[in-house]
Amino acid sequence: MDLLEEYRRATFFFESGDPLGAARLLEPIVAAEPGNAAVRQLLARAYFNSAQLAGAEAQLRALIEHDPSDHYAHHVLGRTLERAGRFREALPHLRLAAAMNNHGDYADALRRVETWLGKNDDGRGPQA
Fold it and tell me: Superkingdom, according to UniProt (predicted)?
């Protein structure tokens, strides 16, 4: 298998709106090259975009373990946890990302989760 060619194909699938196809191509690349942060990040994004949140979380935690200063990985992990309704767990990652990089999306996500937690004391989401 030509890993570079497969990565290019996966990128094309991802950019064409097929995150599931991208993930299928990226999984064996990450297995073959576990230290390749760019491939792991794209796999995490493919999982996130296809609502495979557990997979996204696992890839993002691996990225953060390797490089705790990766603000983008913290942001996407926070967004993944937010999307899963795990607001209290999302908050520290979103705060770190916003502190490390002054990016509008980071600030917006942080505000959204802080507001949510302020309105819902238990941080578990809407009340039934």
Answer: Bacteria
- Cα gap 47→2, rounded to integer Å: 22
Q: Give residue-wise pLDDT tens across range 42-56.
A: 999 999 999 999 999
Span 34-87, pLDDT tens digits: 999 999 999 999 999 999 999 999 999 999 999 999 999 999 999 999 999 999
Instruction: Determine contact, residues 97/75, Cβ cutoff 8 Å.
Output: yes
Q: Quick one: how far is CA 1 from the chain centroid?
A: 27
Query: For residue 17, what is the DSSP state?
Result: T
Domain boundaries, the chain: 1-55, 68-128
* Residues 70, 65: Cα–Cα separation, whole Å: 9
> What single DSSP character describes residue 124?
S
Residue by residue, DSSP assigns 51-89 as T-HHHHHHHHHHHHHH-TT-HHHHHHHHHHHHHTT-HHH
